[in-house]
Each structure stands twice: as structure tokens, then as C-alpha cells.
Amino acid sequence: MSSAPRIYVPVRLQPGKPAPLDANQSKYLLRVMRLSDGDPVRVFNGQDGEWRAIIIQDSAKKASIRPVEQTRDQIATPDLTLLFAPLKKTRTDFVVEKACELGVQRIQPVMTEFTQSSRVRSDRLQAVVIEAAEQTERMDIPVVEDDMPLLKALNAWPTDRPLFYCDEAGGAKPMQETLSGRAIEAAGILIGPEGGFSAAERGRLRGLPFVVPVTLGPRILRAETAAVAALTLWQSLLGDWRDHPYLPETQNG
Amino acid sequence: MSSAPRIYVPVRLQPGKPAPLDANQSKYLLRVMRLSDGDPVRVFNGQDGEWRAIIIQDSAKKASIRPVEQTRDQIATPDLTLLFAPLKKTRTDFVVEKACELGVQRIQPVMTEFTQSSRVRSDRLQAVVIEAAEQTERMDIPVVEDDMPLLKALNAWPTDRPLFYCDEAGGAKPMQETLSGRAIEAAGILIGPEGGFSAAERGRLRGLPFVVPVTLGPRILRAETAAVAALTLWQSLLGDWRDHPYLPETQNG
Questions:
Q1: pLDDT on residue A244
Q2: Distance (Å) from the C-alpha of residue B165 to the closest C-alpha of chain A?
Q3: DSSP string spanning A226-241?
Q4: Chains A and B: how many Cβ contacts under 8 Å?
Q5: Residues in chain B within 8 Å Cβ distance of A197
Q6: Model pLDDT for residues A6-41, shown as the tens digit of each residue
Q7: Sequence spans of domains, chain A
Q8: Do B218 and A169 touch (CB under 8 A)?
Q9: How far is residue A106's CA from residue A126's CA, in Å, rounded to a whole number?
Q10: DSSP string of A36-101, one letter each residue
Q11: Class of domain A79-237
């Protein structure tokens, strides 16, 4: 049973040195989980691995944690970036949650010509990735960038890094065929909006040497499905799903 | 522009022979899409391919379609079944929608020891898969079975058909490694509930000769993420994502 709640604390972790929790985390542990002084939690901060810790109840609404010992090493997430055009709120949250679970380092919302949704609030998405990272047993939190226009994101892209672009038309090869046998340390995956890219955007993408068009099967996938599918293929063929994983026992393990 | 609405009609399609639409479809075309007599639609029925058709407005609230000509051949979906333990309503709908997009023939909800959700309504899920099939450009509708206990589903499973079981523990190999180089015509994928399978269920699964445990990377995936990831890997390595696909022009293509 490793059913102790797992929480992200953005401070350095040292044995015995208490770290304060914010109001939401305190409320979650004290009110929702009904924990109190001395109860065990698991904490991570993105750099010091995972620690066993205990709760210190400072007041009815305020708690800290005291790290006891490090139980897992810090692990780096593959150097993978997801660029995606914002969708409706629920589907955007879904994409961001799944990108965190599937293991990206960076999430870059991009505004395209046919993007129907308004700009995203990166502070709200930050809360989504923190919760997802806690749940998915990651050791770090992906960076959620502020949204920017697609063309600006392309101009800023490191030219030595492939950007796989899920293109439904134009005769691209299946993604697994394109990835097979390659050795790539760092990459990006670009998912368009529901309406696809405009002709001008597609022309621009196709003209960039680092952009690699790929397809994801014979059916039309919704944007969030394409995001999960493309990240799965990258992680399975080139990323950290290739190893036999270490996994802690799950709650009902 | 192939932006004509695409709808499923559960009747045989013959040139010139009108087929009635139900109240919801009529309302969708006449009220939501504001279409009327003579407007183009695309229709499919799961056996006669896709047809160009026109709307016949029978009354203010009632429409039929008249097939004009067949425009795409009927295509079979890979013989793949998803077995999954029902989740909360939104996430169950999500799994079913994604299974349809990713291309399964059959969806079998299974009740497990740690399944938190109540039984699913297969009539509601049927509406979800029809809408997903229309949107994803499928030529058929996956079958959504009534839920049944996991052990009953395992007893009914054809023993010559591999059932890939996503097992977070126990040292199974990565799914892509397990699938690589195999030739499998028909298979199933089994996704457990959020709490995992019970010890008894895991023992039972591990003892069945057709059950193949696999893992999906070093992080804990939510059930719906695991479903999309596993279906993606199967389709990419053994299913119909291996071919360079035919795809119709999308709306903004």
C-alpha cells in the first residue's frame, strides 16, 4: 500500500526541514483527505526525487510537511514538446492532462488561423499539469507556456529538432513508419485545431526543413485524440516507454 | 469542400430511394444546420459505403434523404475489441468516443471488483458511437455490448484470440515490444478500472493462456489514457494505421 497522497511542493526538500503547503494543498489534505499531524504523504519538487514525509498541522486550515527520507531518485522526462491549438475548455484541459501523463517536458499552445477558442490561461493549465503530475507519479512538472501565434512558435523553434506535424492530407507516411529506426533525443509534436491548418499555414509548415509531416491512420481523429496517439507513438518508439519500467505499487496493486 | 453533414442511416441505400430520418436527425439538419429541400448530405449505413444524398424536407420537423450515388466503398474496421471497466460518465463517454475514432469493431464494458461506477446504459453509448463514427469518417458503427462481469467476459472470450491486458505491475514487457513483428488478425485490449484489478482478478487473468500482459511506460496512466494509447499501438503496429490512408478532403483541407 503506497496510498499516501502524493503532492508537489515547489521548495527544496531536506530531511527534517518543514516546508509550508499552500491553502489549497492544506485544505485537500486536512479537509478532503481528513489527514492530520503525523500522517504520511509523498512529496516531490521536480529536482530532489520523491520523499516520504509527514504532515504537520499548523492550524485548522494550514499544514506543512516534514520530509523524512528520499524514496525515489529524480528522473528526467524525455525532451518532448507538444504544440497544440487550443480547443474548447474541457478538451484543452484534457490535452494538457494527457500530455503530462504521457510524458512531455513542455506544452506550447499555439494560435492558428482556424483556432476557434480564445486564448488559454496558462495559470489555470498549470494547476491541471500539477494535479496530473501528482497522479501519474512523475518526478517533475511540465512547463506550460503562454499561448503564441503559430508562426512565432515556428520561428522560435530550434532548427536541429524535428517537429512532427500531424497532417491528415498530402500523402505523408504513417507516424510509426517515420519514427521507426530513428534515434532522436529531442522533438516536438504539432497538433492543429479541429478545422485543420489553413492553406497558408500548411504551405509554411511544409517549407520548413525541421517539420516532418506524418499521418495517424485512415480515420479523422479529433485534435485531442491525435495528441494522445502521437505522444504514445513517440514515447513507445523513441521515448521512455521502451524500457521495462520501474513502477511503485499502485493503491490496489 | 466536402463540408456536407455526414449522417448514419440504419437502412439500405439505393439510388433514388428515399430513406426517412429520425426526429433527432431531422432536427439536426433542419434546425441546427438550417438545411432544407435539396441540400446535400453524405450518408452511410455500415454496409453500402458512403453516398452523396440530398435532403427531402417532409415537414417543418421531419426530413428524409434521397441517395444519389455511392462515393466511397464500404471498408471493414480491424477485428479489434475493447474491454473496459466503466468510469465516471464523462470519462466513459470519452473512452467510447475514442475507441470508435481509433477503430474498434466492438466495445465491451466489464464490471470488475474495484469498478466504482454503476452499470452503463448501452443505448446512451450507442448514441455516442454513432456521432463519433459520423465525425471520424468511419463506414460502420462499432457494437456496444451491454456490460457484464469481467469473469463472464473472460469465459466467453475466443481462446484463439489474444487479449492484451494493460498491467502496471508484474514485470510485463512494453506493449510495442510485445506487438512488434507479430501478425494478428483479431485481438482484444482490456483496460482496468482506476483502482486496478483485484489480486484475484489479476491471478485469474495471468492464468489464462490467451491473456498477454503488457505495460505502457513508466508513468501511471489514467484508464482512458491507457485505452487510447493501447488502441493506438495496436492500430499502428498491426492494424489499419500501417497503410498510407485514403482520406477525404477535410472541411478546411
A1: 59
A2: 15
A3: HHHHHHHHHHHHTSTT
A4: 168
A5: 252
A6: 999 999 999 999 999 999 999 999 999 999 999 999
A7: 6-72, 79-237
A8: no
A9: 11
A10: -TT-EEEEE-SSS-EEEEEEEE-SSS-EEEEEEEEEE---PPPEEEEEE---SHHHHHHHHHHHHH
A11: alpha beta
For residues A79 and A81, what is the distance between their CA atoms, to the nearest angstrom? 7
A79-237 shares the fold of A6-72? no
Residue B230 near residue B166, CB atoms below 8 Å: yes
- Alpha helices by DSSP H, chain B: 23-27, 89-102, 122-136, 150-156, 175-179, 199-206, 223-237
| Chain A residues touching residue B216 (CB < 8 angstroms) | 232, 241
Residue in the structure block whose three cell numbers are 525532451: A79
Residue A180 CA from chain centroid, whole number: 23
Q: What b-and-e string marks burial along A8-29, b requiring 16 or more CB atoms within 10 Å of the CB? A: bbeeebeeeebbebeeebbebb
Calculate how close chain A gets to B212, using CA atoms only, in Å. Answer: 15
For residue range A208-224, what is the model confidence (pLDDT) as tens digits?
Answer: 999 999 999 999 999 99
This model of the complex carries an ipTM of: 0.92
List the single residue in B168, B173, B251 with the smallest CB-CB distance to A250: B168
> Which residues are B69's β-sheet partners?
B52
Distance from the B58 Cα atom to the nearest Cα atom in chain A, whole angstroms: 32
Residues of A whose CB is below 8 A from B178 = none
- What residues are paired with B182 via a beta bridge? none
Instruction: Check A218 against B135: CB less than 8 A apart.
Output: no
Mean pLDDT over the full length of chain A: 91
Which 3 state secondary structure label does DSSP give B94? helix
Question: Whose CA is closest to B65, among B4, B130, B150, B3?
Answer: B4
| Contact state of B218 with A243 under an 8 Å Cβ cutoff | yes
Please tell me what DSSP assigns to residue B22.
-
End-to-end CA distance of chain B: 8
What are the pLDDT digits (tens) for B192-219? 998 889 999 999 999 999 999 999 999 9
pLDDT recorded at residue A252:
35
The one-letter amino acid code at B140 reads D
Q: What gap in Å lies between CA A22 and CA A35, rounded to an integer?
A: 16
CATH of span B6-72? 2.40.240.20
- Contact list in A for residue B174 (CB cut-off 8 A) is 236, 241-245
Residue A101 to residue A78: CA distance in whole angstroms: 12
